Amino acid sequence: MAVVSADACDTAPVTTGPAGSSGFPPGSAEPSTAESSAAARPVAASADARRGLAVVTGASSGIGAASARALADAGFDVLLGARRADRLAAVAADIGPAARSRPLDVTDAASVQAFAAGVASCEVVVCNAGGALGLAPVAAADEAEAEEERWRWMWEANVAGVARTVRAFLPALVASGDGRIVVVTSVAGHQVYPGGGGYTAAKHAAAAVVQTLRLELLGQPVRIIEIAPGMVDTEFSLVRFDGDAGRAAAVYTGTVPLTADDVADAVTWAVTRPPHVTIARLDLFPRDQASARDVHRRP
User: Fold this and answer.
1) Is residue 297 part of a domain?
2) Active-site position among 199, 236, 252, 285
3) Nearest to 85 by CA among 206, 187, 2
4) Are 237 and 43 in contact (CB under 8 A)?
5) Residues linked to residue 83 through DSSP beta bridges, in sequence order
6) 266-280 core/surface letters (b: 16 or more CB in 10 A; e: else)
7) pLDDT digits over 115-166, tens only?
8) Residue 223 DSSP label
9) CATH code: domain of residue 246
10) Of 182, 153, 186, 162, which Cα lies nearest the Cα of 10?
11) Where are the alpha helices (DSSP H) in the chain?
12) In what order do the strands lie in the sheet with 53-57?
């Protein structure tokens, strides 16, 4: 299954790209020149970087891609991870010399370790990969086996994927002296809605991981930040509804939802606060949304 970008009541999908030579897993498409160069040496912030290195997962589209661009604009070098090679390469090329990319599947522990290999120090890790599949009731029995598989994938991508990413990069974050872990959760991590049992359960668990990390890392030079968006106009709903464009578009009909750039702006603002300031949790709703269930729609 594809890994889509983390969200809220709705966000963009983010899948990730290929693997090539020069340290990338064999048997996959050759990465771009920039990607090959990055894979051949340890990853660290460039000497003239104003802010250091920011790592972004789920960076091939949506919130992840927008966050990578915003962080680069703010002065960070950026390391991008995702599964869709073409999309990932395009995002990195658009950003320019400050961006490098590596293949990443957060549901695969070995892939996460390979992604983090050689990163001796980094200032920011944005855990954005994740997503939702389906909108079936908890008690749905006609597709029970398929629904359980979807629930397993949502747990792997949204919960275990965050834990794997944090474990892989924590030494580098501590080494920076001012690490920031940003987990993009969702309004679904704090509220529920009919049909969202699997997704809201996973996002509630992701939010619990964030709170636990804040306790466990108290006293360490690492800040823990949660960004919880509401409706975001990305490919999130298209992926959730298995490519049904009409059903996905209906999610936003009559509203003005957030954009991926809105969320990226919040991510960048949160990680650029002074070192003694932690934005513990930042909820983002469009004006047309009051909760995970309550949305104002114009005729």
Assistant:
1) no
2) 199
3) 2
4) no
5) 16
6) bbbebbeeeeeeebe
7) 999 999 999 999 999 999 999 999 885 677 888 999 999 999 999 999 999 9
8) E
9) 3.40.50.720
10) 186
11) 33-39, 62-73, 85-95, 109-116, 144-155, 161-176, 197-216, 236-240, 245-250, 260-271
12) 99-103, 77-82, 53-57, 124-127, 179-184, 222-229, 281-284
Polymer length in residues for the chain: 299
Residues 6+ apart with CB under 8 A from 237: 10, 247, 248, 249, 251, 252
Taking the C-alpha atoms of residue 14 and residue 4, their distance in angstroms, rounded to an integer, is 4
Using CA atoms, how far apart are residues 138 and 175, in angstroms rounded to an integer? 44
Instruction: Please report whether residue 23 resides in a domain.
Output: no
Q: Which helix (H) or strand (E) holds 126?
A: strand 124-127
Indicate the pairing of strand 222-229 with strand 179-184.
Answer: parallel
Instruction: Please tell me the total count of domains within the chain.
Output: 1
Asked if residue 21 has pLDDT above 90, the reply is no
Write out the residue range of the structural domain in which residue 49 sits: 33-284
CA–CA distances in Å: residue 88 to residues 32, 173, 262, 278: 10, 24, 20, 30
- Considering the entire predicted model, what is its pTM? 0.85
Cβ atoms of 57 and 106 closer than 8 Å:
yes
Q: Token pair for residue 28?
A: 């996959």
Active site annotation includes 199: yes
